[in-house]
Specification:
Strand content: 5-15%
Strand order of the largest sheet: 2-8-7-6-5-3-4
Radius of gyration: 21 Å
Shape: globular
Mean pLDDT: 96
Distance between the termini: 64 Å
Number of strands: 15
CATH superfamily of the largest domain: Type I PLP-dependent aspartate aminotransferase-like (Major domain)
Oligomer: single chain
CATH class of the largest domain: Alpha Beta
Helix content: 25-40%
Amino acid sequence: MLKPNMFYGDLKESYLFYNIAKKTGKYLEEHPDTHLYRMGIGDVSLPLCDAVIKALHEAADDQSVPEKFNGYMPECGAGFLRSAIAEHYRGRGVQLADDEVFVSSGASDELGDILDLFDRENSSLIIEPAYPAYVDANVMGGRKIVHLASGRDNGFLPTPDENTKADLIYICSPNNPTGAVFSREQLKAWVDHANKNGSVILFDAAYEAFIEDESLPRSIFEIEGARTCAIEICSLSKTAGFTGTRLGYTVIPHDLERSSMNFNKMWVRNRTTKTNGVSYVIQRAGAAVFTPEGQQQIKQNIAVYKKNAKVLMKVFDQLGIWYTGGKNAPYIWLECPNGMGSWEFFDFLLNEAQIVGTPGEGFGKCGEGYFRFSTFGSPADTEEAAARLLKLLG
């Protein structure tokens, strides 16, 4: 008799975005002509840059010419894109071989797929508040989850101690949802801890391009010792606006081994078995991101989101509201004013100022009493929302 994966029965219903949609839908039904200022969703609002659009068109045209046509692509990524990404890292002082880079259809996909490399008996440590998919992917796999709470007292950037034990360690920096960024010293503590205990760090670097403080690491591989204990998963979604075109990459060093098994070789075997690669057209678009022209243009787009963050941070500074994030991340994580709960604050903003954010409780228990704002909206909406926040809370 067929038996389903019974661990799906252990999944908790995710009410976060369902409740947000339900509440905003009801509000719009009652106020049909109202414009909502949506600063909750983490999707980009600016179009793909010109260099990427040009590459998309040229690659599409290639598919109409027999001499340039491409069918199945290499499962681990086209050589031209793997090389461009590795060279980008080398330009920042991180030495990678081209074949340590694996092209993916996005960080979200890869964060789930990467668990194929690890035994079900391995435990996973998740620093919370956290991207909910970390927890759900491990529940689906039947793994034990170790929840490590963080809070205002440590800036939502905890470091390990002798009681912190897990086989897999999830670290997201800049963090979603808090926007907090680990320093070199803090990441070194985690790398040393992982090497000492034989753990592997799954480093989510989806927002690394938003770091403007040069003293902060943008890659785990800037930290000595990381090549023997870390896998880095990155995305072009927020970096270059690829949320609708889907492209990312994963870095697995040749040095990463456990029990005489090499994870780079294992991932080659996994990808050549389970995927047919990312399309030629999308990979050509991705390669354009790493050209001088592409880098200049995506930085211009990121600067728009960073300006949005400054507009919001100025308001919170004026109001004396504690927050983290914003400067080096596209998210601002603030303490709800006047002792409000996170859903209470959501309802208050929606009904009194027509502003939509994300209640912190949806990212774990220690997110209660906090709230996340995304800075990916339009500048005009952000300016108006900031003015409404100042009037409402001032």
